[in-house]
Specification:
The chain is an alpha/beta fold. Helix content is 34%, strand content 26%. The protein has 8 helices and 10 strands. It is globular.
């Protein structure tokens, strides 16, 4: 079937692009130096490198928690530094974030933790009651909606965090060392969920230092070393 001009344009615009991005912190600490790469919609990209290589700094720029000292970060062709500060929360709904330490609200149930992301944007109760169970079913926690985080294993808590990241149906999932506190079985369960989410068409950026994970995923790997990209390989093993 012939694509319309609009379809061709959308299919060729990277969902994320870094153009000559550097980030220098006070004291002349260079976290990123002249980083350039792009990510197409639906890609699964692992960002790897030793501790301090710049992985977390790079991911913070994707969800506009930090801005470059030089260069530009683009989302769907739009420069993030052109988004007014009061509009950043609306932009961030395009980006689901998952961290190593879960960041769950301990006094709220699984259902309430996931629902909270909708509540803060003023979603009606009917939408919340419909959307949250659907997302919890995707991550395999539909039977633990009334549990509190302390009643869950580490792997289950991370699945709650992943459900919360998915509740806005984001275009991109950013996962920063999401398996760092998990045992090997739970680690692979989370990775399989990320792969499943990617199959739905969501772009995934995974920062990890776990070589086994990257080797098993066998997707594109960007390797950082002291803030520079030293390797960008379309598939294969974690190696410099």
């Amino acid at each position: 079937m012939t694509q319309s001009p609009t379809e061709v344009t959308e299919s060729t615009v990277p969902i994320l692009a870094f153009d000559g991005v550097s980030r220098v912190f006070p004291g002349e600490f260079v976290a990123l130096e002249n980083v350039t790469f792009s990510v197409m919609p639906g890609e699964f990209v692992s960002i790897v490198g030793a501790s301090g290589a710049g992985k977390s700094t790079l991911l913070r720029m994707v969800y506009a928690e930090d801005m470059p000292t030089a260069g530009t970060v683009y989302f769907n062709g739009r420069a993030l530094n052109t988004i007014k500060r009061h509009l950043l929360p609306f932009y961030r709904r395009n980006i689901g974030t998952v961290f190593q330490d879960f960041k769950l609200l301990q006094n709220r149930t699984v259902f309430e933790n996931v629902a909270y992301a909708l509540e803060v944007q003023g979603a009606p109760n009917a939408e919340i009651e419909e959307e949250v169970p659907q997302i919890l079913e995707i991550v395999g926690l539909e039977d633990k909606m009334e549990f509190f985080p302390r009643q869950l294993s580490g792997g289950e808590q991370q699945r709650v965090a992943l459900a919360r990241a998915l509740i806005h149906r984001p275009k991109v999932i950013v996962a920063d060392e999401p398996t760092g506190n998990l045992d090997p079985i739970s680690t692979w369960e989370i990775v399989q969920l990320l792969l499943k989410i990617n199959e739905f068409g969501t772009t995934v950026l995974l920062a990890t230092h776990n070589k086994n994970i990257v080797d098993r995923i066998n997707r594109r790997v960007i390797t950082l070393d002291r803030g520079r990209i030293v390797r960008d390989h379309q598939s294969g093993v974690y190696a410099i």
